[in-house]
Amino acid sequence: MKIAQIAPLYEAVPPKLYGGTERIVAYLADALVDLGHDVTLFAAADARTHATLVPARDQAIRLDPAPLKSDLAAHLSMLHEVRRRAGEFDVLHFHVDLLHFPFFEEAASRTLTTLHGRLDLKDLADAYWRWPQFPLVSISNHQRRPLRFATWLGTVQHGLPQHLLPFKAVPSGGYLAFLGRISPEKRPDRAIALAHRTGLPLRIAAKVDHADRHYFRDEIEPLLDDPLIEYIGEIDDAGKAEFLGNAAALVFPIDWPEPFGLVMIEAMSCGTPVVAWRCGSVPEVIDQGVTGFVVDDEDGAVAAIARLPELSRARIRQTFERRFTAEVMARHYVELYEGLLRGDGEALRRTA
């Protein structure tokens, strides 16, 4: 099968530091190549991929030192090139939200659009009502709730290369880990409170976006002056393996409708259990009492941390291999691609 993967241009594919969508596009493209498919990746030129790369920009936008940049212009130029070459592919798989809809209406039945973000935003519903002919993929069932009427072809959970983050049978750190981004919806303050209540050290490896600098400065930075708390900043994949692998648990104390939560399966790959708040996709990702604990409040999280010795790190890794590898993800997508070629997407459009 000839498959085009169209990635956002904000981060490298995969990202050099923090980043979710581009990371999944990288893993999916490589896994599809490994399964024998002919894959072309439209992305920034600093991508590392087994696919055939069509560079749409000299480098990813976020780490580009140029002071003035136009993300809209870059993405429109890339979509122009995808449209020019669209006839070369059996399937066009987009990961750029709905930006491509006005330009690919005639080819919609050969497209698949994975939505990677939250969908409870003003204006989204009107747009998805306007373009019902585009088959969509969610990354969790919960993510779909604001747009139940949309043309959903399936749900495909994320996956990681099986050997990217190695299994760690005996962690040496004895700390709680918080990994990702400092923002109000990610609730690092809850993670800090857990450290205080359990007496376990907390290590925070997270980036601070420009939009969240005031929150970090005013709400979180004053809490870091504590011997139990260590703030590390952003880390790359090499640092992630050690950071997660040596943790007693990953804490995922979110307070928003998380579409998936990639860091949870990154921890599982290392055999590290997850203690996560019951928000968004969390109950779909965590097998309660097997790969971690889903909790409703801080008291529940404290109780869950006390139960961590009950969990088998080997079983957590086995669950990761069964549910969340890149190969598993790619095979699910291949089933959807085959459905498109059979006309399933057109049938969905007619009944939308």
TrEMBL record:
Q: What is this protein called?
A: Glycosyltransferase family 4 protein
Sorted alphabetically, the Gene Ontology BP terms of this entry are: carbohydrate derivative metabolic process
| Domain of life, source organism | Bacteria
Q: Where is the Glycosyltransferase subfamily 4-like N-terminal domain?
A: 18-130
Q: Which GO terms describe its molecular function?
A: glycosyltransferase activity
According to the entry, every stretch annotated as the Glycosyl transferase family domain falls at 175-310
Task: Give the range the annotation lists for the signal sequence.
Answer: none
Tell me the Pfam families matching this sequence.
Glyco_transf_4, Glycos_transf_1
